[in-house]
Amino acid sequence: MDVFDDLIRGVRAHGSLFGSSVLTPPWSLHFADGAPLTLCAVLGGAGWIVPEHGEPVPLRDRETVVVRGPEPFSFVDEVGTRAAPVSCGQHCAVPGQGGTRHRRGWHDSGDADVTLIVGAYPVRGEISRRLVEALPGVLRVDGGGTGDGVLDHLAEEVAIDRPGQQVVLDRLLDWMLVCTLREWFDRPGGRPPAWWAAQHDPVVGDALRRMHAEPAAPWTVAVLADRARVSRSTLAKRFGELMGEPPLTYLTRWRMTLAAEMLVERSSATVADVARAVGYSDPFGFSAAFKRVRGVNPSEFRRTATA
């Protein structure tokens, strides 16, 4: 278990393919559904992603962008296009609305300039929210990378309706999102989040994997250092340099993130149940730690979040 595995597990496509829209200029598709993450890829042409606030981003053949919501954005043939905006979202699934002929597939024997493949992602829980917060408003990845093969599969799958197609599309979209985020985090000259870069360090990466695999274990700096076969001072120094905080401070914040998700997702769990699940035998000590990190006690957090 690594940090990325944990953070992305709540980001899953589920019936979320808006469509594979074949477009001829001029066009202007306006996405205003407020999805936390939207993945867009084009085949056989180019266009522009225009966020509501921010600079337009070019999207060329076989390139992919991920747009962070909930702010709306548009996909246009050119900046300042004369095309009237067509609102796209959960109902953008028929040609009259600028979308696809069928909800789960599209086929047209005519010529077209651009095929746009779009997938929207819900983001469940406190854990995956940490991933979303590490992303810019719009990120773009060039074609020619590991996602190209997935894009080909997506293009083939949306061309015809088949039994079980939505499940296949969902999994392909998940695969495409993972490939896109990996390439963006690893891009030359990029500034990935600290947890992404630290995973590649043999010492800090080992400590992170252990804390994520067993967050409730009674970890100490000495135990983590012993598992990594380094001294306590070495672990503390390298962890602080790469992560910007001590190991046990990170562990406490991660435990409180897990606890916050459990408080919302497991309505039958008591505060004491959640405390034990994240490594606290004393619910009062857990409540104090939760309030120190989250600003409110567990019961107040649950009431507000579920409301």
Describe the structure using short key phrases.
10 strands, 12 helices, 5-stranded antiparallel beta sheet, 5-stranded mixed beta sheet, 2 domains, Jelly Rolls, Arc Repressor Mutant, subunit A, globular, 307 residues, alpha+beta
Overview of this protein structure:
- Residues 205-304 form the HTH araC/xylS-type domain.
- Keywords: DNA-binding, Transcription, Transcription regulation.
- The chain is an alpha+beta fold.
- The chain has two domains: 3-185, Jelly Rolls (Sandwich), CATH 2.60.120; 197-306, Homeodomain-like (Arc Repressor Mutant, subunit A), CATH 1.10.10.60.
- Helix content is 42%, strand content 16%.
- The protein has twelve helices and ten strands.
- The strands form two sheets. It has a five-stranded antiparallel sheet with strand order 1-9-3-6-10, with helices on one face.
- A hairpin with a 5-residue loop joins strand 4 (47-51) and strand 5.
- Helix 9 (247-265) crosses helix 11 (283-294) and helix 9 (247-265) crosses helix 12 (298-306).
